[in-house]
């Protein structure tokens, strides 16, 4: 049965419009004036609340199979639904086995079956010794690959050095898929740590000094050079340092196929405001200065940074080491799936941005990165009716029970945020709303090929 969803602010590729989103059989039938609706159609009027396309998070650590006690498909997709995301793209590490072969990808598909509140896809991994698996992974449906230029924190997903990367790049270029890179090199970090002998590791300043901007800068310079040589699609994940922005802008102006993401925590927090011993703020690369934060917002304004992804990287609470507060011993990762859109919107409003910007950063641009822009990330007639109702003016303070992921641990608990997801719809079916979550999990894997 057809159902019309009315709003004064429906965010479409052609702008923000007032009217009705008409859905029938899980598909968007029309977006237009309320007066054009059939007289007998059922209606839900959201008034001033905005209707956004289902958001896309292209950087999530679901950790299943193998480390489901860290997160898992059921809890991650539940948190995603509460946060307005209708598609997650899972990173290939922190699960066991890592998603570096087609056989391992099939195990992930088995693990996900029947558990997902929203849709998902899986990046493949590019590691030290799996070059022969690159093209088979593409044929099996992954939208791209992830690699680390530095130890990733889990032994099974091996970092890749320049020589190994150059062995993989011809296959990655042939696939036409993007390579997502954790762009830090070990050399500058090792040098910085050597200078910190005897330092106070409960101090955030010590941790920040241990992950200098130069680690990102040197990695990005190397990657730009390789992109120029091999002509592969390069994507820089979780850019932290604003010092890399001029070189990235120049490389893009040169025509190199480079895209860039940053994360809510780099846009919301600043090093000067992080308390000593509070390891909930630890991530890699680190949260940098207030000046750096402002420059990242400027890069979003200028288009040098294309998208925002959460890098949702949860772990059991004990691994954050709050009892000792040492940044060198704690797991590096920030969990934010259920609150990320509110975090970004809170700061975006202060910066003068609007709903169309929010949807571009967290909807259409990540969909494009994953090669799925014709299916997800925007509201268009003929597409599946996956959308979000967002109370733009709502002011709220997240509590632990609002997080919905497995472990209720996040630096965003207690922050005053603006904008809140009040409903998430997947193919026209409510998966999160005032009555809680759907009773049946109908999320699907989205395969690229």
UniProtKB/TrEMBL annotation:
Domain of life according to the entry: Bacteria
Domain Amidohydrolase-related: 51-431
Pathway assigned in UniProt: Nitrogen metabolism; (S)-allantoin degradation; allantoate from (S)-allantoin: step 1/1
Gene Ontology MF terms: allantoinase activity; cobalt ion binding; zinc ion binding
EC number: 3.5.2.5
Domain Allantoinase composite span(s) in chain numbering: 7-31
Function, as annotated: Catalyzes the reversible cyclization of carbamoyl aspartate to dihydroorotate.
Homology family: Belongs to the metallo-dependent hydrolases superfamily. DHOase family. Class I DHOase subfamily.
PANTHER family from the UniProt entry: ALLANTOINASE (PTHR43668)
Quaternary organization: Homotetramer.
Protein name: allantoinase
Organism for this UniProt entry: Granulicella pectinivorans
């Amino acid at each position: 049965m057809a159902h019309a969803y009315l709003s004064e602010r429906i965010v479409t590729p052609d702008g923000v419009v007032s009217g009705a989103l008409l859905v029938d059989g899980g598909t968007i039938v029309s977006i237009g004036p309320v007066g054009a609706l059939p007289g007998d159609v059922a209606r839900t009027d959201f008034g001033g609340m905005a209707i956004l396309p289902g958001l896309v998070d292209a950087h999530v650590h679901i950790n299943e199979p193998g480390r489901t006690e860290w997160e898992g498909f059921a809890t991650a997709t539940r948190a995603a639904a509460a946060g307005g995301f209708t598609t997650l793209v899972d990173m290939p590490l922190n699960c066991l086995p890592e998603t570096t072969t087609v056989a391992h990808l099939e195990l992930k598909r088995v693990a996900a079956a029947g558990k997902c509140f929203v849709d998902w896809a899986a990046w493949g991994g590019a590691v030290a010794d799996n070059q022969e698996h690159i093209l088979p992974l593409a044929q099996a449906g992954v939208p791209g690959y992830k690699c680390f230029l530095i130890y990733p924190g889990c032994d099974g997903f091996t970092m890749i050095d320049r020589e190994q990367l150059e062995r993989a790049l011809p296959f990655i270029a042939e696939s036409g898929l993007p390579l997502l890179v954790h762009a830090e090199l070990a050399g500058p970090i090792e040098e910085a740590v050597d200078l910190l002998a005897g330092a106070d590791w409960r101090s955030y300043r010590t941790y920040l000094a241990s992950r200098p901007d130069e680690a990102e800068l040197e990695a990005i310079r190397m990657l730009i050079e390789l992109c120029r040589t091999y002509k592969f699609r390069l994507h820089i994940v979780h850019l932290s340092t604003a010092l890399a922005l001029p070189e990235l802008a120049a490389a893009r102006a040169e025509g190199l196929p480079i895209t860039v993401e940053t994360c809510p925590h780099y846009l919301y927090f600043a090093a000067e405001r992080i308390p000593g011993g509070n390891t909930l703020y630890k991530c890699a690369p680190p949260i940098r200065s207030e000046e750096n934060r402002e420059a990242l917002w400027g890069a979003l304004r200028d288009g040098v940074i294309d998208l925002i992804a959460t890098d949702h990287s949860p772990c059991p609470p004990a691994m954050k080491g709050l009892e000792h507060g040492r940044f060198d011993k704690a797991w590096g990762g920030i969990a934010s799936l259920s609150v990320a859109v509110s975090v970004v919107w809170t700061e975006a409003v202060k910066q003068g941005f609007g709903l169309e910007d929010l949807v571009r950063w967290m909807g259409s641009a990540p969909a494009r990165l994953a090669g799925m822009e014709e299916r997800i990330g925007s509201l268009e007639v003929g597409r599946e009716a996956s959308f979000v109702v967002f109370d733009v003016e709502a002011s709220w303070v997240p509590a632990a029970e609002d997080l919905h992921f497995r472990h209720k641990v996040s630096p965003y608990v207690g922050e005053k945020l603006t904008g809140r997801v009040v409903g998430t719809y997947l193919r026209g079916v409510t998966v999160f709303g005032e009555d809680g979550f759907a009773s049946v999990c109908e999320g699907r894997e989205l395969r690229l090929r």
